[in-house]
Amino acid sequence: MPTLDPSQLAIREMQEDEEQMILEMLKDGFKDTENRLILYVLTRPLALLLLAVVSSGLRFLLNSFVAALLGPVLLTILALKMLLRHSPDLGCLRAYYRSGRRRLWVAVCDGDDVCGCVALVPHPEGAPCTAELRRLAVSRWYRRSGVGRRLLAFLEAQARAQGYKRVVLYTAVVAKAAISLFESNGYRPTGGRSWLGYTILREFSKEL
Ligand SMILES: CC(C)(COP(=O)(O)OP(=O)(O)OC[C@H]1O[C@@H](n2cnc3c(N)ncnc32)[C@H](O)[C@@H]1OP(=O)(O)O)[C@@H](O)C(=O)NCCC(=O)NCCS
Question: Which of 143, 167, 168 to mutate to test the pocket of ligand 1 (most atoms within 8 A of CB)?
Fold first, then answer.
């Protein structure tokens, strides 16, 4: 899709009747990342080695080679899916983001087409003057047309207006589009979260 004219795009708080639509948009954005992240985790050398060891052990207990091979893989996928789905505030989006200093905004194209969203929350670990960016997603149809960049600029302006001096965010290592968006907007890697020694989530931050 070509870049949208700035006058076509407005950003405002999410309305009650948009909650379901936004949930679907977030789930859609998350699904791609989730599948790529699971593939990424399963193909790390250490994960492959562990799966091979468990499969070999199971081969002594099970008659079927296929079951011994696929069982641990399927169980790992299931466990990772359950782990990644754990998102306490997704079920009651509007109530969560209207409490305290949390806010969720939507991008609206041509007056009525909701095409993206972004949320801001105070840093959960209480880092001073730090806001966290969450729930950034753009609907598939509107991707690569400047909506993500606009939402990011809007969020930063909101954070500044609320007195924050820094924005922090966490994104999966496999979310290439998001990483490129953040890096091209001045965000720098400041940490990460690892699993089996492999970075899974990258932390980016920007001084406002
Ligand atoms: C990440 C996301 C929000 C980007 O939104 P978008 O509206 O497509 O982004 P924009 O059109 O504003 O693009 C801005 C920049 O992001 C980067 N970018 C966006 N999509 C990209 C892609 N598919 N591949 C590489 N870079 C990409 C580019 O640097 C781009 O600048 P350019 O067009 O001048 O090259 C969108 O792809 C999305 O919703 N992804 C799924 C959910 C997700 O990953 N959310 C982030 C969670 S932290």
Answer: 143
Pocket of ligand 1 (CB under 6 A): 29, 33, 136-138, 143-149, 169, 171, 175-178, 180-181, 184
For atom 27 of ligand 1, the residue with the nearest CA is 177
Distance CA 9, CA 40 (A): 35
Tens of pLDDT, residues 67-115: 998 999 999 999 888 877 765 456 677 778 877 788 999 999 998 899 9
Domains defined along the chain, listed by start: 6-16+90-207 (3.40.630.30), 33-85 (no CATH)
Retrieve residue 40's tokens: 């990424």
What's the pTM value of the predicted model, to 2 decimals?
0.90
Strands 188-195 and 198-207: antiparallel
Cα angle at 171 between 106 and 135, to 5 degrees? 20
